[in-house]
Each structure stands twice: as structure tokens, then as C-alpha cells.
Amino acid sequence: MLFSIINGKIKKKIILLPHNNPDGDALGSSLALLFYLRKLKHDVDLISPTEYPEYFKWLPGIKDIIIFSEKNQSIIKKKFLNSDFIFIIDFNNLLRIKKFKNFFLYSKAKKILIDHHPFPFHFDFMFSDPKVSATSILVFRFISDMNHLDKIDKKIATCLYVGLMTDTGYFRFPSVTSETHFVAGKLIEKGINIDEIYGHLQEKYNENKLKLLSKALKKLKIIKKYRTAYTSISYSDSNFYSYKQGDSEGIITYGLGIKNIVFSVFFFEETKKSPIKISFRSKGNFDVNIFARKHFGGGGHKNAAGGILEKSLSETIKYFLSIIPSYKKDIIFSI
């Protein structure tokens, strides 16, 4: 039914929603869908709750993204109320679009989920598979199921490939499967420039970001008996180094790169007010998705998740340290 409507001759008003602080997969998936649905002559808006990292500004179609603000919220509200379909892309919990959650709930549009995170909320149409390595693969499947692989051009392929690269750690994560490489191969056939894409994704470092990283590494703490590493960035740190969206990305991976460490945590005080944002990464069988959901109102994947806590930075770290002992066996015997 959905495919026949989307592929029909009647023009539909469609909204595409990535999550807060959209990453490469959220942006790549959303932009690819934007190009594809516009090819089908639909009226499509891509609306992001927050800004995207500056190093993604080269992506095709990125300037078409509508960033939510106090100034345009009335216009965005009208778009929600008048839409026929809303695509939820690369997230499955409405907390990830908190700024206009009510607009979403009040809209009578049919809601379509395209996402690869576990434990999804239920929507009208579900394209959910936590076994795939990136939401971009599900967008590729969606287009394929519509029998429209011929409509994937270089721009769409570039966006989807960025989603694949970033959400698989450049094809290194355990989530990578034969399908990941199959889809990558099909996208390469569309004439994308892999070297250029890789170059753009590596150009995300600036002086302030490196100084922020240096600050985080100086604060790095290792708890050997729990095979755990953690660090933090306070608001004063980020403010001093003129923080921009995306500057804290990647900090958490340094802890996980230490020998014998299987659990890495990063606490980020982005503003003077709560909540504290927390990132979790793990190796082996220690499920940080379950950990984040149980203690920090978050979630994600088995080895990569996030959460928040409505406490100060010091209180959040103290709380974290208080619950770690109960996970000792789970962590140290995870690999």
C-alpha cells in the first residue's frame, strides 16, 4: 500500500526527520531520500531539530535542510500539520526530536520509520532492522523495493555511501556484513568518488577541536579492575575552545583503543544547564545499549550507545562510578 501511494501520480507533502545532532548516517540517509522522493515529484522538506557538524557541509543537498529555530517554528509547525507522510530516519525514540515532538504527535500524517536501532517505538509503517550496519542500507532497500534502483544517481549514492562509511567506522565495526559491502559496491557503480568522500570526512579537524581533544585526554581516567576508561569535557572547557557542533565527536574512541579496555565512556557538559550527555562504547558482549537504557534514559546499539542525566557533571560521573561495580563480571568477561 505505501509503495503504491509513494509511487503514485498524486503529489504528497512529505517531511523527513533525522535526529538531534545528526551524524553521517542520519544526514546521508535523509538527503538520499530527499533526492529520491523529489524525483518522484513529491513536495519534500528535510527538517533537522539541530545544526549538523560543519564538516558535512560539502554533502549534496545539505543547504536544503531546514534547521529548527525559534524564528521558524511556526512555519515548521504548519508543515507538520499539513503533511501527508513523515519519515523518521535513523532514530526510533521521540526524545531524539524533543524540540518539536508535539508537532509530530499532533500531525495526522502517516509515520514511516526507517531505522536500525533496537527496541523501536511503533509507527504506521516500519522499516526496522537492528541487524544492518547503517540506516543507509535500509534506505537502499526501500528504493530497491520500489523497483527504482535506476533512480539512484551519483548524488544519492554519495549520500548513502557517507552513511555507510561513518556508521561502520570505515567498514571496521562488527556490524559490517556481506550486505554492507554489496550495497557499497552498488553505490560505487554509480560513479561516486571514494577518495574525495574520504578526504572530506577526514577534514573535520581544526585547532580548537584538537585542543578540546587534548583536554579530554588529560582528564582520561582508567579503572583497570573494571577494564573501563572514561573522560569528560565541561562547559568551561568547550566554551574556552569555541566549541562547534561535532567537535567532541571521536573523543570516546581513544579510551576504547587502550589495551585491555573494553568499556569507554565520555561525559559532555555542552551547556551550563543539564542534562549531561553521555556516550558509551564497548568491545565484545558487554551491551551498552541495555546499560544506557537502564541507567541513563538512552539507548543505541550493543557496542555503541548514548544517554543523558539531569545532574551536574560531577554528580553524573559520581553516579556512573557507583553503578560500575555491579557490572564488573559483565565487563571483564565480555571478550
Helix content: 25-40%
CATH superfamily membership of the largest domain: inorganic pyrophosphatase (n-terminal core)
Helix/strand/pairing category = alpha/beta
Low-confidence stretches: none
Distance between the termini: 45 Å
- H/E series, N to C? HEHEEHEHEEHHHHHEEHHEEHEEHH
The Cα radius of gyration reads 20 Å
CATH architecture of the largest domain: Alpha-Beta Complex
Report the CATH C-level class of the largest domain. Alpha Beta
The helix count comes to: 14
User: Beta-strand percentage?
Assistant: 15-25%
At the fold tier of CATH, the topology name of the largest domain is inorganic pyrophosphatase (n-terminal core)
Tell me about the largest β-sheet: 6 strands, parallel
Shape: globular
Kindly state the number of beta strands: 12
Number of domains: 2
Strand order of the largest sheet: 3-2-1-4-5-6
Name the average pLDDT.
94
Give structural notes.
The model has no long low-confidence stretch (mean pLDDT 94). The chain has a 6-stranded parallel β-sheet with strand order 3-2-1-4-5-6, sandwiched between helices. By secondary structure, it is an alpha/beta fold. It has helices at residues 2-6, 24-39, 73-82, 101-106, 135-145, 154-167, 178-188, 194-202, 207-218, 235-240, 251-256, 288-296, 313-323, 328-332, and strands spanning 13-17, 43-48, 66-67, 85-89, 110-115, 125-128, 221-223, 228-233, 263-268, 276-282, 299-300, 304-309. The radius of gyration is 20 Å and the shape is globular.
